[in-house]
Amino acid sequence: xxxxxxxxxxxxxxxxxxxxxxxxxxxxxxxxxxxxxxxxxxxxxxxxxxxxxxxxxxxxxxxxxxxxxxxxxxxxxxxxxxxxxxxxxxxxxxxxxxxxxxxxxxxxxxxxxxxxxxxxxxxxxxxxxxxxxxxxxxxxxxxxxxxxxxxxxxxxxxxxxxxxxxxxxxxxxxxxxxxxxxxxxxxxxxxxxxxxxxxxxxxxxxxxxxxxxxxxxxxxxxxxxxxxxxxxxxxxxxxxxxxxxxxxxxxxxxxxxxxxxxxxxxxxxxxxxxxxxxxxxxxxxxxxxxxxxxxxxxxxxxxxxxxxxxxxxxxxxxxxxxxxxxxxxxxxxxxxxxxxxxxx
Length: 344
Hints:
The chain has 344 residues and is mostly helical. The protein has a single domain (50-342), classed as Na+/H+ antiporter like fold (Up-down Bundle), CATH 1.20.1530. The protein has helices at residues 8-58, 63-85, 92-117, 122-133, 141-168, 171-178, 187-196, 199-212, 222-236, 238-250, 259-284, 288-298, 305-313, 317-342. α2 (63-85) runs parallel beside α8, α4 (122-133) packs parallel to α14 and α11 (259-284) crosses α14. The longest helix has 51 residues, at 8-58. The mean pLDDT is 82.
């Protein structure tokens, strides 16, 4: 008896059915992973930010004071303790710094060129550049990096955050002021003053000096260990407090403001920026963890501090606030998809 022969149509049918089942299984796994990211990474972020939103709507909260607590009291402690205890022996830190600067410059140029082509000038152009180049790598990005990638991811994210924190108060001021013809006078001096008022600069310098002096908190004792533990405790309060501040900002709501322009700004911030970061990250030779963290941070919504700059220099603040709120809401979906792609 010869070997059994199967009709070619039956073989084709089985093959197609197998491919359909494999594709269906792949889609199911992708959907399950997105849901897992929403539940395990973004839900904790949304929960704490939601607490801030609820508190703002139930009672009067001074956002300026809350912001200053984070900027001047908590985030410098987080930067200091993280840099002191983080392994900086590899090139990952320098590459992350370079990526953050590269994304900032690239998105600034892309948004500026796009705005000019669309006929935007003055405050409107400055507003588009602000929300496209500066992302919420602190209030939103650091907690998300911690939940998604653990302590190693948080340590890498801090370098990205340092670049954004410093340039946001320097380059961001220049961008906001550029939209106001009256603010050109004395701009370099104002930028210098902003830099010198940034506590993150001094926290970074102090941490690097401590490392150069051979300070090791794991072998310290007495008052030195007690002081370091106190600073560490301050730093641990930074991430939840950042999310509380983000929630109070979102509680302000969103105004009706050129839907097409808000949509364009959100697309630049949530879609174009991570694509730019991915290309730059590959060029810089970032490894898997560093590349994933850098791309995720580059896909964060518009930074909250851009609203302060826009208000100060009248760079169309209503548009900036609208983009901050809209991009923050949309990021719950875009970041879930982005993280799923990065982990795929």
